[in-house]
Design goal:
The structure is a homodimer of 276-residue chains.
Chain A lengths: L8 E5 L5 H10 L5 E5 L11 H16 L5 E4 L2 H15 L4 E3 L1 H11 L4 E6 L1 H6 L1 H9 L4 E6 L1 H9 L4 H12 L13 E4 L8 H8 L4 E4 H15 L12 E4 L3 H12 L8 E3 L5
Parallel strand pairs in A: 1-2, 1-3, 2-9, 3-4, 5-6, 5-7, 7-8, 9-10
């Protein structure tokens, strides 16, 4: 058996949150090598305009292509929501996998009632990409969206449980889930890579009987399917991941471990300049 | 009497928080015209490295200089803390007023015991500029610093009172102010332009007998002194301010009003590109 295609997978995110997607990809495709790029100099993308997010994201994936990647996963929900067509055009014919489509598929697979709530950044909510993707798969779905920017700050601060996180989740979610079982959503999409870190308090605020879905596992599945279909899978043994960041590499290593679920050694993050 | 120097004052900030400084300048110098630039495409500066903050800030003030400004106020604490020498060099001989020096002066003026707490962004705390500036004015001062990044997100979300803000303030501050009056700080510097919006919950968490100081009023005073000393003051009638932002001008107008204390009309914010 050949080693397959030993080129790495590129993962792009605005910062460190996409490491939750990397974690899912590592679990699903342990033999693939990964190059992760976090645009930490310009994060967050969630409060920026679609034009700016698109310009930054195209710069970032062009940089990733230098690492001879065979496919790129756009782990950032905001970039997936507003910039995917531009990224596909910039990288063609390289396969590009966003997280919004997989997240929408996960939600449609999980809901029984068709009532789906989506929480995300301001930019993702404003663009409405999740609602669109869900309606394409399930035209009768009722989608309610809510921007929850404080969850990003809480996750980065590591305050993922305790009273501040719990009260914040309650304040964002209580009115959405206030109704009875016949009217409230039964599925909640965590439409930002930072939010799975707060899954405990989010689940509690949403109440019983609500399925939490995020796009990490489904995106990993979508990547696996694309690699298989195009004969790009690697069958030999992985290799250490490479971490690239556009700023503050010490902070990347320190905060990144929270999202990756394993240590990011301080010396393993390389500083890159996307303007060059 | 002549109209004096009718050129505008430039105010630079990473985003909208500096509008609290603009408000203080407008109150102290109502006859001056103001051009405000918020680098909203690249905010926040508080989590970025000193090198990146310096590069961004120099680009921003160079752009402001095109408006024929007679002086520039660096309203961003992080940029004042890490980039002031570079900004002075880039703008020389134009006077440049940062907010860290005035904030330190306000703190030294307020303390009776010499025990001063400083809360700020990660970048400002890491650089230690407040501690240095305070020690230069008051060598015996005891300074304790704490990074409070969630305050930024809370202020931008408009959650400036209520239980989430109160608990967050308590969590950040309770150990600093846990001692008795003979050991706890008697002065607390709000070392980030966003923090005055949360002054109520911060004062409550710090407890009685603690003076809260911020640099807005002192920076306005420092600006007035520089204009007077150099014969740059304007004696005629102000004129409408100009708002410039590098991204998301609608959000600037909406969130900015919280900090300025008066409406920022949606059509009054001009989008500018610092890379040109």
């Amino acid at each position: 058996m050949s080693a397959g295609d030993t080129r790495p997978i590129g993962i792009f995110d605005s910062g460190m949150g996409g490491l939750t997607v990397m974690r899912a990809i590592g679990a699903r495709l342990p033999k693939e090598r990964i190059v992760y790029l976090g645009d930490t100099a310009r994060l967050p993308y969630g409060t920026k305009s679609a034009e700016t997010v698109t310009r930054y994201a195209v710069q970032a994936v062009r940089h990733l292509r230098r690492y001879d990647v065979k496919a790129i996963v756009v782990a950032c929900n905001t970039a997936s929501a507003v910039a995917l067509p531009a990224l596909e055009a910039a990288l063609s014919p390289l396969p590009v996998i966003g997280v919004v489509g997989p997240g929408a598929r996960a939600a449609v697979g999980a809901t029984r009632t068709g009532r789906i709530a989506v929480i995300a950044t301001e930019g993702t909510v404003r663009g409405g990409a999740y609602a669109l993707a869900i309606h394409q798969l399930h035209p009768g779905a009722q989608v309610v969206q809510r921007a929850c920017p404080l969850f990003v700050a809480l996750a980065e601060e590591g305050w993922v449980d305790g009273p501040v996180a719990a009260l914040t989740a309650e304040r964002y979610l209580s009115d959405i889930f206030a109704g009875d079982a016949a009217s409230r959503p039964d599925t909640l999409v965590l439409g930002c890579t930072h939010f799975p870190a707060l899954a405990g308090v989010i689940a509690k605020a949403a109440g019983p009987g609500v399925a939490l879905v995020d796009s990490a596992a489904t995106a990993a599945e979508a990547l696996a399917a694309v690699l298989e279909a195009r004969g790009l899978a690697q069958h030999a043994g992985g290799g250490a991941p490479q971490f690239l960041a556009t700023d503050a590499i010490e902070r990347f290593a320190r905060v990144g471990g929270l999202f990756l679920g394993q240590e990011v050694p301080a010396g393993s993050v390389e500083l890159v300049d996307l303007n060059q």
